[in-house]
Amino acid sequence: MQDQDPLVYLNGEMTPLSEAKIPVLDRGFIFGDGVYEVIPMYARRLFRPRQHMARLFRSLNAVGIHNPHSADEWMSLIERVSSALASDDQLIYMQVTRGVAKRAHAFPQGVTPTVFIMTNPFTPPAAELCENGIACVSLEDKRWLRCDIKSISLLGNVLAAQYAVEHGAMESIQFRDGFLTEGSSSNVWVVKDGKLMGPPKDSLILEGIRYGLIEELCRSGNMPFEARRMTREEVLAADEVLISSASRELLPVVQIDDKRIGNGEPGPVFRKLYAAYQDAKRA
Ligand code: PMP
User: Fold this and answer.
1) Is 114 in the pocket of ligand 1 (CB under 6 A)?
2) For the chain, what percent of residues have pLDDT higher than 70?
3) Which of 90, 156, 241, 282 is the S-S candidate for 253 at Cβ 3.0 to 4.6 Å?
4) Which fold has domain 7-121?
């Protein structure tokens, strides 16, 4: 029950995180050849596990990595890892790489995928961030064109996140050819005249598990929703901008670069959706 050095799952074994080792020829290390998933757990219950599992399976399928486990097996592995941690709220991280093989780009034959699951105590974002909002910076999206795959090759996202840090911002909001895509590790939402809008679910963004949830919350809250391409000008002229992710839940963006968004305070659509999100996660 040591949260400092939690037990993790690696290829069939539970070991302390500090002792978990993989061979240097693992293709995750050599090529970033793998996929991952992050599932929040609240009060010892996974939040939207079916959707996260489906996305993991889609990612594996998209990159041609054999899925080593059934959904039930995955669930019991997650249970093993999460039950070893004292915290009731956790963020569970799962990663599958193509496995260990002599270094050559094309798929090796007959290799066993590497499976790694770890978890960390999860503290949702501080109330202050929800009350005051966050500042973001805008950035040209220079990532590859299959952002719909939850790939561990995250260099583009890493550089975008670092850009935000270096500019004193909480997240970078990316635009490709002048159109909104997403944050370095979040989806981005725009509110205009009471309507919530998100970029289309295409290969230029990762469809967050919160994407589907937010669509559901809009439907049940009688809030208009539209998925469409949005220009940088539209985003900057929005009444509200929000970001969402498993770890950041839902946060209001009150500034992008030097531009204040709306009146510079979290707006009514954020507050309504945030309350609905909090209800959903405890339901
Ligand atoms: N886009 C990117 C690039 C991300 O890394 C994340 C976080 N996983 C998201 C969107 C949001 O996805 P989710 O709601 O599943 O956390």
Assistant:
1) no
2) 99
3) 241
4) D-amino Acid Aminotransferase; Chain A, domain 1 (3.30.470)
